[in-house]
């Protein structure tokens, strides 16, 4: 009993002090094993899924693939996703074990992904490649794409670099991003960089310009009508973002950026600084999966200060550590979308080759 308690404490420390997702996952799996939760992941019944119907649909998909019946496979796939997507999105599936959910979720998603790629790679009677491509594009539009929203929070917003780096290292960073306040700066820094530049950004955060804040004195602030020097913020933005338009950033990186902007009104009632500071630290943004900045009272004195290099490393580590427990759910919840991306890319390439062959001039 004493040995088990010591082992648990060691594993908990490893979990909290992990330097990467692989270390975290190893400790999480060991703790799940101690708690008997790996057995839950292997259970046939969970009470949260319609297991018998899911297995029936998986069997029908396999039967269609074995017989090359792409038309029927499409119908079964549509019916099965319509029936099961809601229960697969249940966050309770990911609160039992630390290291992941019940294996049936992965098996079902395997069947869906395999079926999508089978439809992509095999002929459908009387359906051209162009028509099949449009079918996939229409289906993807209905299904939707993952998007990442980064909230504000002044200096706390640097935490988003850790969140996005954790996603990027697992190839899970969405191509669609939105941001507000400091979240907009981080989102902009990511969406203006291509893959090579993004690797440099995440691997060398020490190159980030950190000095966004320069607070004016009382007299100067009253005369100017604002408390912070906009020239310092502009320098910060210029260094980290450069001067590119939304379109130019998209064409360079392939990522879509959305930034919310509040218009300035001449008759707008000024708000006290304490109210503005509270607003920055209490913003509420909710999505299907939420990653929250860990509340630490000792950090709130830093919220309106330029971070030191040590602060930068600390915020990034906090962001990564908060993301790792959510990665299993994020991987599962984005699998179908990522399968759409692969299928559409293959069909676009196939159509391009067909078009080139048709327009080639014979010698």
From TrEMBL:
<keyword id="KW-0812">Transmembrane</keyword>
<feature type="domain" description="PNPLA">
    <location>
        <begin position="148"/>
        <end position="330"/>
    </location>
</feature>
<keyword id="KW-0472">Membrane</keyword>
<dbReference type="Pfam" id="PF01734">
    <property type="entry name" value="Patatin"/>
</dbReference>
<dbReference type="InterPro" id="IPR050301">
    <property type="entry name" value="NTE"/>
</dbReference>
<protein>
    <submittedName>
        <fullName>DUF3336 domain-containing protein</fullName>
    </submittedName>
</protein>
<keyword id="KW-1133">Transmembrane helix</keyword>
<feature type="transmembrane region" description="Helical">
    <location>
        <begin position="142"/>
        <end position="161"/>
    </location>
</feature>
<dbReference type="InterPro" id="IPR016035">
    <property type="entry name" value="Acyl_Trfase/lysoPLipase"/>
</dbReference>
<dbReference type="InterPro" id="IPR002641">
    <property type="entry name" value="PNPLA_dom"/>
</dbReference>
<keyword id="KW-0442">Lipid degradation</keyword>
<keyword id="KW-0378">Hydrolase</keyword>
<dbReference type="InterPro" id="IPR021771">
    <property type="entry name" value="Triacylglycerol_lipase_N"/>
</dbReference>
<dbReference type="Pfam" id="PF11815">
    <property type="entry name" value="DUF3336"/>
</dbReference>
<keyword id="KW-0443">Lipid metabolism</keyword>
<dbReference type="GO" id="GO:0016042">
    <property type="term" value="P:lipid catabolic process"/>
</dbReference>
<feature type="short sequence motif" description="GXSXG">
    <location>
        <begin position="179"/>
        <end position="183"/>
    </location>
</feature>
<dbReference type="GO" id="GO:0004806">
    <property type="term" value="F:triacylglycerol lipase activity"/>
</dbReference>
């Amino acid at each position: 009993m004493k040995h088990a308690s010591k082992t648990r404490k060691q594993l908990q420390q490893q979990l909290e002090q992990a330097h990467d997702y692989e270390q975290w996952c190893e400790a999480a799996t060991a703790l799940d094993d101690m708690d008997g939760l790996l057995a839950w992941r292997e259970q046939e019944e969970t009470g949260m899924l319609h297991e018998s119907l899911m297995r029936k649909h998986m069997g029908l998909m396999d039967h269609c693939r074995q017989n090359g019946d792409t038309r029927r496979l499409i119908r079964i796939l549509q019916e099965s996703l319509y029936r099961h997507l809601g229960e697969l999105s249940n966050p309770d599936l990911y609160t039992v074990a630390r290291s992941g959910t019940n294996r049936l979720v992965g098996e079902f998603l395997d069947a869906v992904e395999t079926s999508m790629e089978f439809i992509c790679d095999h002929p459908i009677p009387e359906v051209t490649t162009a028509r099949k491509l449009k079918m996939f594009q229409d289906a993807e539009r209905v299904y939707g794409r993952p998007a990442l929203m980064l909230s504000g929070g002044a200096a706390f917003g640097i935490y988003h670099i850790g969140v996005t780096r954790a996603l990027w290292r697992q190839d899970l960073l969405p191509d669609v991003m939105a941001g507000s306040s400091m979240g907009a700066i981080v989102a902009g820094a990511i969406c203006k960089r291509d893959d090579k530049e993004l690797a440099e950004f995440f691997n060398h955060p020490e190159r980030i310009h950190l000095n966004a804040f320069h607070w004016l004195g009382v007299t100067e602030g009253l005369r100017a009508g604002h408390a912070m020097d906009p020239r310092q913020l502009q320098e910060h933005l210029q260094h980290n973002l450069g001067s590119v338009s939304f379109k130019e950033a998209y064409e360079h990186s392939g990522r879509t950026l959305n930034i919310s902007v509040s218009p300035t009104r001449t008759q707008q009632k000024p708000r006290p600084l304490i109210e503005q500071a509270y607003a920055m630290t209490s913003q509420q943004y909710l999505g299907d999966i939420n990653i929250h900045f860990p509340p630490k009272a000792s950090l709130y004195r830093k919220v309106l200060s330029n971070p030191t290099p040590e602060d930068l490393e600390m915020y990034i580590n906090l962001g990564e550590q908060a993301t790792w427990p959510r990665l299993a759910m994020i991987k599962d919840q984005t699998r179908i979308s990522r399968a759409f991306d692969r299928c559409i890319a293959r069909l676009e390439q196939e159509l391009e080759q067909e078009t080139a062959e048709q327009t080639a001039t014979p010698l």
